[in-house]
Amino acid sequence: MDLKDKLVSSFFAVEDYLEDSSPLHEIRNEAIKNFEQQGFPTKKQEAWKYTSLNSVLKHNYSLFPKQETAVEYHAIKPYLIHDIDTFKIIFIDGKYSSHLSQTTHEGMDVCLMSAALSKPKYRIMIENYFNKAANKESLTSLNTAFATEGAFIHIPKNKLVQKPIQIVHFSTGSEASLMLQPRNLIVVDENSHVQIIERHQSLTENPVLTNSVTEIFTNKRAIVDYYKIQNDNLNASLIDNTFIKQKQESIASVHTFSFGGNVTRNNLNFYQHGERIDSTLKGITIIGDKQHVDHNTLVHHIEPNCESHQDYKGIFGDRSTGVFNGKVIVEKEAQKTNAYQANNNILADDKATINTKPQLEIFADDVKCSHGCTIGQLDEEALFYLKSRGIPEKEARALLMFAFSNTVLESVKINEIKRRITKLIAKKLGVNIGFDL
Q1: Coil vs helix vs strand at 197
Q2: How far apart are CA 205 and CA 95, in angstroms?
Q3: According to the model, what pLDDT value does residue 396 have?
Q4: Is the Cβ–Cβ distance between 176 and 62 less than 8 Å?
Q5: Is the dihedral of CA 124, 63, 39, 239 positive or negative?
């Protein structure tokens, strides 16, 4: 039995349990039918032309961990932003870990999807928001069918959340191979501001496949800063689907830092429903070995006087592969749109590969839109200049790569994340540089 058949049969085997624990029975059934009809994406599809899941899907994944594994704080501390006080929603092998987490219901809800699905007081929120931004593509539908756990965050009107929220998923290797399908729902009401950090981390060498879906609703004049840190081992693969629905005068930004993993696919979708909306999508990718990172972005400008800014930087070594497939759609009604898209890449080795395809679909006539991509190597003249000032070649190359990444890091608003990413970049480049960007 292949993985697709195993997933479909497993869904119907637990259908009664899912029906009893959630108001989403019809949504789940429609979703599993979508997945059964479409199957896993293949390279025959244009959006997956440069990314194959064959090597990932060959494992016999456990879909439901048979036991809970206890993990001590010292084992996960290196993977947390522990320099500052934060709310924490921690999952171990897909199960919520109460003793490692810090949630709250004081003036806002920072809690679990399972609680939101099971408690009547959240039913209106679920009916109004769950699956209202996500698309019906196969992997998103698969997650919807099995969605039982993840983070549920609701920030009410006029609320400035005083500390960031961390959502972290750990896998321990309690199973020979494990598939996880976390589902996050984040609703930020008018005039509120929240910062969120998300990470998926394997603590084992056993194969792990995570198919994650996050829906974010940014209401009028709300501000959402979202940070994704991806630095997993070579047996962990991640398919990350994020959908952001913005209303008028809201600001949403997503920074994605991809430094590790086997196959990483980031599907990031922004939908602008209102005027004077600002959307920011930025990312840094530094990989080697045979790692594969694919950024697939969409910004849909629907109404006038809005902006979007995309800036993705990639450094690829060894036999690694990078993919950037970015699309900006400007509808006829979306006059006065300002959309910027850039993807710049450095191939550090001859056998590294980058496939990049920035796209604009513009149906309005009064807009400022630009897109572009570059693929190259480090500037030899700049490298020679640094070496002539007594800087060793390895450190000189690292300095140039730091400068190359700086346009992404300068917009990070949490200093502790900026310092952490700076250290990760230095580690990936194999140098020790005593400064922060």
Answers
A1: strand
A2: 19
A3: 86
A4: yes
A5: positive
Residue (of 250, 248, 75, 43) closest to 170 by Cα position? 75
pLDDT tens digits, residue range 319-332? 999 999 999 999 99
Amino acid at 253: S
Cα–Cα dist 25/376, whole Å: 50
**What is d(CA 91, CA 387) in angstroms, rounded to the nearest whole number?**
47
Per the structure block, which two tokens stand in for 196? Answer: 């969120």
CB 118 within 8 A of CB 22: yes
Angle, helices 415-429 vs 393-409, to 10°: value is 150
What CA–CA distances, in Å, run from 255 to 230, 239, 386, 421? Answer: 11, 16, 30, 11
Tell me which long-range contacts 46-54 makes (C-beta under 8 A, separation of at least 24).
47/296, 47/325, 49/355, 50/294, 50/321, 50/323, 50/325, 50/355, 51/263, 51/265, 51/292, 51/294, 51/323, 53/263
Buried b / exposed e over 359-385, threshold 16 CB at 10 Å, is eeebebeebebebebebeebeeeebee
Domain extents for the chain? 3-273, 379-437
Tokens of 12: 């119907």
The answer to whether residues 268 and 281 touch, using CB atoms and an 8 Å cutoff, is yes
Query: What is the value of pTM for the model shown?
Result: 0.95
**Residue numbers in the chain where pLDDT is lower than 70:** 15-23, 433-437
**What's the token pair of residue 217?**
């609703």
pLDDT of 301-314, one tens digit each? Answer: 999 999 999 999 99
CA distance 243 to 259: 22
Judging by beta carbons within 10 Å of its beta carbon (0-12, 13-18, 19+), is residue 12 exposed, middle or buried? exposed
Can you give 137-191 as a three-state secondary structure string?
CHHHHHHHHHCCCCEEEEECCCCECCCCEEEEEEECCCCCCEEECCEEEEEECCC
What is each CA distance from 273 to 133, 252, 288, in whole angstroms?
12, 13, 39
State the pLDDT at residue 431.
74
Question: What pLDDT, on a 0 to 100 scale, did the predictor assign at position 16?
Answer: 63
| Burial class of 386 by CB neighbour count within 10 A (0 to 12, 13 to 18, 19+) | middle
